[in-house]
Structures are given as C-alpha cells and as structure tokens.
User: Fold these one by one.
Assistant:
Number 1:
Amino acid sequence: MLSDPEENKEYVFVIHYDGAFARLIGFKDTDKLNKKTEIGYWLSESYQKKGIITESVKVLLHFAFDELDINRIQIKCAVGNAPSRNIPRKLGFKFEGVERDGELLVDNQFTNIEVYSLIKKDLCC
C-alpha cells in the first residue's frame, strides 16, 4: 500500500478500541474520475458486536463526501454475512443486488456478494 503510486493510494485507517488494535477500515477501488469508492472493513472477532464498524463507517462517509468530494460509496459483503450486511442497512445504504461469484475466498471458492450503495444526495433532504 505504501509503495503504490500517489494517484493509486487509498486511505486506510487503524481502528483502536480501548487502546488496543482492533483492525482496519478504509477505501478501496477508488475511482477519482467518477467520484466513487468502496469501504472495506476488517475487525477482530473479540471486538465485534460493539458498534465499532458502524461508527467508523459514519466517520468515513463524512470524510469521503465532505473532504474527498466523493459522490458514491459502496459496501460489499458476502451473502449470508448478516453482521456485515447490517452495517450498510443501518446507515441508509440501498441494496443494489447480488454480484454472482464476486469474491474469491481463501479456500479458492467463489462466493456471491451483496452490493449496497449510498449516494451523496441520499444524505440530504
């Protein structure tokens, strides 16, 4: 990530909880020309179900829309991953559909991915 050319660099942030490293959150596949990005998050199991990611995504939404002038943000999660799916739903993201075989998992198996999006104007009026 640090060795990426400047035009391809993404914002990735460390999440600390009670002074401990809980994991990461950040943008990926940012398309500056079309003003869109995706938020990805990874949280250690012992920190899950505490609202940490929901609050972290809220911060990134404001940063992306207000500071980076992004218009569209998406979150993808594996079909059946209810905890991850609940985050965009709580935050007003719209379900767009299922990307079939959208992600190759560690065990070399493809999984279907749910796609959610939030557009800047969704937050207004």
Number 2:
Amino acid sequence: MTGATGGIGRIAAEHLLTEPDLHLVVLARDPATVDPRATAIPADLRSPASIRAAAERITTLLDRGDLPPLRGFAGNAGIQYTNATTTGPDGFEATFTVNVLANHLLLRGLERHFAAPARIVLTGSDTHFGDLSHNLGLVPAPVWRDPRTLARPAAFRRPASTAAGRTAYSTSKLAVQYLVHEWARRLPAGVGIVSYNPGFVPGTGLARHAGAVERLVARRVLPALTRTPFATDLPTAGARLAAVLLGRVTAPTGGYIDRDRAADSSPESYDERRERELFAALEDFVA
C-alpha cells in the first residue's frame, strides 16, 4: 500500500491491520512513520529509481517466503502542488510521477507475483469529471495532452500558477482512470483492478503545499461540508477504502467505485486510444 501514513490511507491501513491473516506492506518515504504492525519498505514516489528498488525489495521478500502470497495492491498516494513545474529526481513533473507513473511502475514490478484471487485498487478523484457538481469549483477541469507532455513540467498554461497545479492534479486523476481501464485488459484472470473515488474529503493533507490562507480554509472551513452531501469525512472515506480493498464493495475489473458503490466514471474517461497511448508512454518511461 502507498499513501498509508496519513489521511484516508492511514485510516484504511488501521482497518486492514485488524484483519486476521492479513499482512500489510507499506511503502513510505520515512519508514519510521509506518505502523509497527506492518512491514515498512522505503520509497520516494517522486523517484522512479526509488520505486523500482522498492518493488524489487518486495519481490525478493516474496520469493524468499518472508511474505505471504501477494493478493492486493493499494495505490492510494496522491499529491497536489500549487504549480505544474515541480519535478522529481528524474525530471518528471511530480504530480504525474506520484499519481500516475508510480502506480504503473509498481504494478509492472509486482505483476508476476500476484496470486489469484487478487485485487488492485487505485485511488482516483471525482475531479476528473471536471464539472461543478463534482469539483465544487475548487479544481479546474482536466486538460488532456500527449502523455509525454503531461509527464514533463509546464504542461499547462501559466505553469507556475496554482490553477496549473490543480489542473495537473485533475488531469492526473483522469490518467488514473485510463490506467485502470488499460491494466484491466492486460491482467491475468483472477487479478482485478478498480479505481476508488472517496469524494471530496477535507483534512487529508492534499492542500499542504497551498498558501497559508488556503490551508487555513482547508483546515477550519471546508470540514463543515462533511455535514452535507458534498463531502465525506476522513473516517468514512478511510473505512470505505478498506472495504474496497477487502472486496466488501465491488465492481467489475476496470470499474469505478464512487464512495460506496459501483458507478460510471466520466464520459471522457472512456477513450481506448488515450488509454493505449498512456500505457505506451509509461512503458517507455520505465524501460
């Protein structure tokens, strides 16, 4: 699991750790932040080299029998910047790297080790719809580009602006949908993949790179929305993620789980040409 040391991921991990016969492996930049009941693997999700090393460490433990058979993967980590110019060690734009490339690289490294029945869950976002009813006007709509452009800094107009950073986020979440659809076509029988949309969840730390005023609003004002249908509180979102991972909320492979039920993702997210192009680009990046 990635993204298990804070936000909805931490709550989901707490639920998973109460399950008998379930062994949780957590990838984290700082292993000291990982619950001691889990196996911690160091990984910086902004760095393809670090991601590859983490996947190799996990497969080594699996091959030695130090871990039980691999029956699940949760790509829950996500980041949002106040610009579209932040890069990681390899020069890839950081939002794209953490939200999209890291998931693909980990699945590539682990795919031969999944033991059916297995379940893969990537955390998406309803910001990929790009309309007011889904993003409350807080995040711009996704702007699709060639994946090789999206993977590099300054893919959007006014790249140093907050709007560009948020566009990078919503676009990365559209890419997650494409990634789920294409992996669903390629995984073997018995290994399913779905995306999970927790909805708008104040307090996850996603706004930690925002300015002081925006952070204050995110911390003090937006949580009030959890008393309305427009937002989900942290405990509920985390519990729902755990339920999806455990197969208690299901959708067909390639499907989209919106909070607590299977649903359709955005009309734009069903584009096989884009899905193939994204997959091919990601393969080139990790080659």
Number 3:
Amino acid sequence: MVIPVLVGLAALLVWGLLAGAAQVRCVDAARAGARAAARSETPAEVLRVARAAAPEGAEVSVGRTGDLVRVRVTVPLPRFPVELTAQADALDESTLETVEGGGGP
C-alpha cells in the first residue's frame, strides 16, 4: 500500500520539477526575444531567438504597442495540465536615441 503512494508522490514531484523548468525556459525565451526586438532585429530573427530558448512545442508571439515591444511565450495545455506563459516587454532602443539626443546645449 505504501509503495504505490510513494511512486505516485515521486511522479508528482518529477512533474512539478519539469513544469518549473519549462516555466523558467519560457521566461528566458520571452526576455531573449524582447532584447532582440529592442535591438531592432528583424521579426524573423526575434522569433528565431525566442523559439531557440523556448521549450519544445511552445508558441511565440511578438507584438508592438508604440515604442514598447512585447514577446509572449506559451506552452499549450497538452504538454502540461496547466498552461505555462511568460511575457517580456522592452523599449525599442532606437527610441532612446531620440530621447537622449533631444534638445540640449
């Protein structure tokens, strides 16, 4: 009776570790994609960078709102019983030149 409970507990712990590691990879992938987008890389390069760092089967989306670039990485439900999602935002570096270089003596 104790052995099946221990096996189930061990499996649950392993699943939790895998889910935690996948979430960390999602966060890293979103940050890497946002950094690439902030450097004004091409959209294809941003997706390549984010997908390279993301867990297998993750969905990557890139959006822009004004000067803010947003990268979202999601691992859909079939892989884990919960949806893992991470999002990173970055300010486009080309807009910083305009702000820093504006109107001073």
